[in-house]
Amino acid sequence: MSQSYIQPYLFFGGRCEEALEFYKTAIGAEVQMLMRYSDSPEPAPPGMLPAGYESKVMHASFKVGGSVILASDGCGGEESKGFRGFSLSLALPAEADAQRVFEALSAGGSVTMPLGKTFWSSCFGMLQDKFGMGWMVTLAPSADPLNA
Length: 148
Prior knowledge:
Blueprint: E1 9-11, H1 16-27, E2 30-36, E3 57-64, E4 67-72, E5 88-92, H2 95-106, E6 110-116, E7 124-128, E8 134-139
Helix pairs in contact: 1-2
């Protein structure tokens, strides 16, 4: 039996391509695959997609470090109403990297906890980016003097 794993699948409500470009710049994301609804070998069922969604992203995958995240514009329904109840946690190898990424991700978004020292990390902060995605940015445990 192969090993199971969990993979985040993010729905951007019509802004997926913009989000992918933002994450490329902000965190060095590498887009591995992108398929538009118009590229699908089978058309969407009638009434499934809003008008104009043909050029939107049906499915994409992008890599951040060793993690692969899946993404889509969704179908314009409930999945497009934002991200609730979770955050993506991003551990970086150096404090300067954490500061740079935190600043980049928070551009156009909002900081919920400034980047700083906590009892569990010498460098940790939380934010919501301009797409409403929650992020927790931290120094990787192997690089953190508090975990040495």
